[in-house]
Design a protein that fits this description.
single chain, 293 residues, alpha/beta, Rossmann fold, Arc Repressor Mutant, subunit A, 2 domains, 9-stranded mixed β-sheet, two-stranded antiparallel sheet, 41% helix, 15% strand
Length: 293
């Protein structure tokens, strides 16, 4: 395979790398970078993932691939490679950023996956080539995480221990002003502890493909806001329910904001929101946030 070189400033897709700390001067790569900036989502997580993490990562990546959204990850064992395969199975393009020299695909068991990424129009890239002094490889793997997050519009952490390289990617995402999602998990499971901590610290909880796609591509909704509002009266039994549903249809999801806008007291809000949830009209997103079903 031919090794190519590119400077971030020479590509519209890579120009986001220009604004990060320790920006790479040059990237070595196989494959073809997108010509223009397109939606890109990073999916990262535990190398020793659970079946739960595998299902979440694969389903999300496949859905993104089907919609032409690029998935970027690190080609590592576990969630990274699952995400890459899911995107490919969805007919999409994926990008893998190595923490090793471009000539040395790591892990070697993923060479076939790297070849498939390239064959399907994606990219395998690194800022290192043979002869570069990488020092401790653990450091080079952490450095590559800043590139993964910089290429992405949104970073999704699927599973992570409390001390994990995925949390390093999350830290870069926050520093770079990227949207950050984390998949909530069993509080007794070590691979969920990092994600649960991220959510507790303010990361968006990832609650499924449908909600995430609506967040990422708000204009792809099958029903317009006007159509939603026209149908609200069918579900509302009183003015309080109708008022709350109207705000939810405008994507105002935070309970405190809804109460403030409607000048509604807590008791009335809780009673009304409970009835709407029982009727199946809305569902909780956690943290006193709600959305229409």
């Amino acid at each position: 395979m031919k090794i190519n070189e590119i400077r971030p400033q020479d590509s519209k897709y890579l120009q986001g790398l220009e604004s990060i700390a320790l920006k790479p001067k040059l990237l070595y790569y196989y494959g073809n970078w997108p010509k223009n900036r397109v939606k890109t989502v990073a999916i990262v997580g535990a190398r020793k993932n659970t079946r739960y993490g595998e299902e979440v990562a694969y389903k999300l990546a496949k859905a993104l691939g089907e919609r032409g959204i690029i998935v970027v990850s690190g080609l590592a064992y576990g969630i990274d490679s699952i995400a890459a395969q899911g995107c490919l199975d969805g007919g999409g393009k994926t990008i893998a950023i190595l923490g090793t020299e471009i000539e040395r695909i790591y892990p070697t068991s993923h060479i076939a996956l790297a070849e498939k990424i390239i064959e399907n129009g994606g990219v395998v890239a690194s800022e290192y080539h043979i002869g570069d002094d990488l020092g401790d490889h653990r450091t080079s793997f952490l450095y590559r995480n800043r590139i993964i997050s910089a290429l992405s519009d949104v970073v999704v952490v699927v599973e992570a221990r409390e001390k994990s390289g995925s949390l390093n990617t999350a830290a870069h995402a926050l520093e770079q002003g990227k949207d950050l999602f984390a998949v909530p998990g069993d509080i007794n499971r070590q691979t969920s502890q990092g994600c649960n901590r991220l959510i507790m610290s303010g990361a968006n909880p990832y609650l499924g493909v449908e909600d995430f796609i609506k967040y990422l591509l708000p204009n792809t909704r099958t029903r317009s806001k006007q159509a939603k509002k026209a149908q609200i009266s069918l579900f509302a039994d009183n003015e309080e329910e109708r008022a709350i549903l109207n705000l939810l249809s405008e994507d105002i999801r935070d309970g405190d904001i809804i109460m403030e806008k409607l000048q509604m007291n807590v008791a009335t809000f809780n009673q009304t929101i409970t009835m709407l949830e029982i009727k199946g009209v809305i569902r909780s997103l956690g943290a006193n946030c709600w959305t229409l079903n």
